[in-house]
Write a structure and sequence with these properties.
The chain is mainly beta and 167 residues long. The protein has two helices and eleven strands; from the N terminus they run ααβββββββββββ. The protein has a five-stranded mixed sheet.
């Protein structure tokens, strides 16, 4: 999942990337702005094993106060099937903080983070299906001559703004 998170911003993650077209920052699955009129976004996707997707969320102009927060919730497959998620908080001062989400047995994870336009430029939610389970001996070209057992796992990312106490 750390690799998937780094791949959402290759120009910052890889020494050889700046100025190389092949390392252009990839397009996220969704790129949304949340504000008072549109306080939430829900995005569902099915992800194959060893694959990832990302959702970018930006604070709108009317979320400038320090009390604004963003609750990021991820619903994925049960923990035994290896869901993973990282939340990258891109601050206005060009620093990035990465939060690792821990999933429950039933595949739920969430975090509440600052979401003021004054301090946050964008939040990227990186989700990954890191399952390595295979059904072997099926005479395929894949690992162990088998087939991945956990392709097309459903993930849902929910981002919702809320006003809380200033920190």
């Amino acid at each position: 999942a750390d690799f998937a998170a780094a791949n959402t911003m290759p120009s910052r993650s890889y020494e050889e990337a700046p100025g190389v077209a092949e390392y252009a920052d990839p397009k996220p699955l969704a790129d949304v702005t949340l504000d008072r009129a549109t306080p939430a976004h829900r995005q569902a996707i099915r992800i194959d094993h060893l694959s990832s997707e990302s959702v970018r969320v930006q604070p709108g102009a009317d979320l400038a106060g320090r009390k604004w927060r963003l609750r990021v919730s991820v619903r994925g497959p049960r923990r035994a099937l290896s869901p993973a998620a990282r939340v990258l908080i891109h601050h206005s001062d060009d620093t990035i903080r990465v939060r690792r989400l821990s999933f429950t047995r039933s595949g739920r994870a969430s975090v509440v983070i600052p979401f003021s336009l004054a301090t946050v430029s964008v939040v990227t939610v990186s989700i990954a299906n890191v399952s390595t389970r295979f059904r072997c001996g099926l005479k395929t070209e894949s690992a162990c001559g088998g087939k991945a057992r956990d392709d097309k796992q459903k993930f849902t990312v929910i981002a919702k703004t809320k006003k809380g106490r200033a920190r």
